[in-house]
């Protein structure tokens, strides 16, 4: 739930050109790994899990975790380089951010065309990111 709120806040800040209300330094919730997200989903009830979650949940979780990591990078950029007291990024910082983003984009591209549901979600993420 926390990371869904963070994603929404960060992308709305970008879209509306306003500062983020969440300070990354105050975020104490670690980014989950894929198995943790799936286990949290399954704890509810196996019957409900099978009824409401798609068969492609593993791939959707992978895409969601890529989105979380991209959003954390976006939050870093917004907080550090677009604030009132922002400093200019160094070449090393820019290179590091670009490398991280490339890794996350590859995670999204790898999931494209596995099936229609995954393709739809991965293409939607690509549109948002570009």
Automatic annotation (TrEMBL):
CDD domains: fungal_TF_MHR. Keywords: Membrane, Transmembrane, Transmembrane helix. It comes from Conoideocrella luteorostrata. The chain crosses the membrane at residues 57-78. This is Transcription factor domain-containing protein. The keyword Membrane applies.
């Amino acid at each position: 739930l926390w990371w869904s709120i963070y994603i929404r806040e960060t992308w709305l800040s970008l879209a509306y050109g306003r500062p983020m209300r969440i300070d990354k330094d105050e975020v104490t919730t670690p980014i989950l790994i894929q198995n943790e997200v799936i286990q949290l989903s399954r704890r509810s009830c196996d019957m409900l899990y099978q009824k409401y979650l798609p068969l492609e949940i593993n791939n959707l979780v992978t895409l969601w975790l890529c989105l979380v990591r991209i959003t954390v990078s976006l939050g870093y950029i917004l907080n550090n380089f677009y604030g009132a007291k922002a400093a200019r990024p160094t070449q090393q910082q820019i290179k590091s951010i670009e490398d991280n983003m490339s890794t996350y984009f590859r995670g999204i591209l790898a999931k494209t065309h596995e099936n229609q549901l995954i393709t739809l979600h991965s293409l939607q993420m690509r549109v948002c990111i570009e």
